[in-house]
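Researcher: Next sequence.
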Amino acid sequence: MSGGVTRRGVLMAGAVSGFAVAVPVGAAALRGAGLVVYDGRLPESLAFARTAGGQALDIAEEHGQRFATLRAGLPQGRGIEGLTCWSDYVALRRELYRQGYRVTAERRSGGLIRWSMAARPL
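Model: Next structure:
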């Protein structure tokens, strides 16, 4: 089946085009982010991280360290922006919630989820 349109091809094209539309909107938010979380194994997520000017955290590396960086605690005051798969987002959200962060936005972007969290005001 060479040269034909496949379901997978259509889904991947939709994910990439959806991300291309989402990045300009999120670019301003990324400039103020204290941390950008991405998955270096996923091209869309890696491209997302490259738009950030702040500290970046590759969730693929964190899996091998059992999320040691996140469990050690993050500096409060600045937001966190991410583009990850759903299962990573759920695990991250739980740990960050425990540290006082709250979800400020979440939106599906193809097979990934684009999310933002901020420290809860005291």
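Model: Confidence is low (pLDDT under 50) at residues 15-30. The longest helix spans residues 7-31.
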